[in-house]
Specification:
The structure is a single chain. This protein is of the alpha+beta class. Helix content is 31%, strand content 20%. It contains 13 helices and twelve strands. The chain starts with a strand and ends with a helix.
Length: 328
């Protein structure tokens, strides 16, 4: 592990000052960052402990929620208002990791975790543009069973590993940011970047910018939502495909819907095409199939992961059918 200087931020202002150094990194639970430092993938000169920052979960005007960036995953999953109003989020968090990891991991850290692509972690034997820009991507011609089918590029086919972020993306979450330049807010669906020719730039965070909170808007029909995850083993593993869904059905018609996919792209994938196709249509398996087919029309599988197209299709249809049946 590369030597580093450790600082502890007592508030947001101190944190923003501390991370102004280009090589600084924020430390929350450390469940991903410390591993990356051990592997020398991350080499921060300054490590800033931000665990003393906002960890509150409070109701906003109108019935939304504001979740502090330092809130632990367990606290979010167990919060009464999250369970009641956004059950998809609770289920995604519980599906994402063991209790020990959930007890340590923070909301901001979850959003900022890096891919678990094998080639990204293989610092000695593999080329990876995400790790070393311009080096090449061995995953494209290598073993790419877990890799992206949507939004990938010649430079990178890695997937984003978060379950929580998929649920938050479906829920129209907004990320609040702070830097020396002031404050701004970014829809979570726009926070993570597709790889393009710079897969090492994973989010729209500017240098020296800090995630301070996540805000969930009032979304009454999100009380009828769920998260379904398909993985290689029953114990904790990253998603091959996951689906976060919320649906409102009236008189057999889809009045409103939110849908996001995990395990299929470089970022949590908001299924805007499927949502547009589905609104106003009958809440039937045939409608759900047509909607997800519209979303997956742009899928570009690799040699080992073509199964993800049909898997995403079936999991989405099953998830929406279950939710619509509960509403019947």
């Amino acid at each position: 592990m590369t030597p580093f200087r450790f600082e502890r931020a007592g508030d947001v202002a101190e944190a923003v000052r501390a991370i102004a150094v280009p090589s600084a990194k924020c430390l929350g639970g450390g469940t991903n960052l410390v591993d990356l430092m051990r592997e020398t993938i991350e080499r921060p000169e300054v490590l800033v402990d931000v665990t003393a920052l906002d960890h509150a979960i409070v109701e906003t005007e109108g019935g939304g929620l504001r979740i502090g960036a330092a809130a632990r995953n367990t606290a979010v999953a167990e919060h009464r208002l999250v369970r009641d109003r956004y059950p998809v989020l609770t289920r995604a968090i519980v599906a994402g990791a063991s209790a020990q990891i959930r007890n340590m991991a923070t909301v901001a850290g979850n959003l900022l975790q890096r891919t678990r692509c094998t080639y990204f972690y293989d610092t000695e034997g593999s080329r990876c543009n995400k790790r070393v820009p311009g080096q090449g991507c061995d995953a494209r011609e290598g073993f790419n069973r877990i890799h992206a089918i949507l939004g990938a590029s010649e430079a990178c086919v890695a997937t984003h590993p978060s379950d929580m972020a998929v649920a938050l993306t479906a829920l129209d979450a907004v990320v609040h940011l702070r830097s020396d330049a002031g404050e701004r807010s970014v829809p979570l669906a726009e926070f993570h970047r597709l790889p393009g020719d710079r897969p090492d730039v994973e989010t729209v965070l500017a240098p020296g910018e800090l995630v301070t909170a996540i805000e969930l808007p009032p979304l009454p029909f999100a009380a009828h939502s769920t998260y379904r995850k398909v993985r290689d083993r029953a114990s904790y593993a990253f998603a091959l495909v996951s689906v976060a869904a919320a649906i409102a059905v009236e008189d057999g018609q889809v009045k409103n819907v939110r849908l996001a996919l995990g395990g299929v792209a470089h970022k949590p994938w908001r299924a805007f095409a499927a949502e547009a196709e589905l609104c106003g249509k009958p809440a039937t398996a045939a409608s759900f199939a047509a909607a997800i087919d519209a979303e997956l029309a742009g899928a570009r599988p690799l040699k080992d992961n073509g199964f993800k197209i049909e898997l995403a299709r079936r999991v989405t249809i099953a998830t929406l059918t279950e939710l619509a049946g509960d509403r019947a």
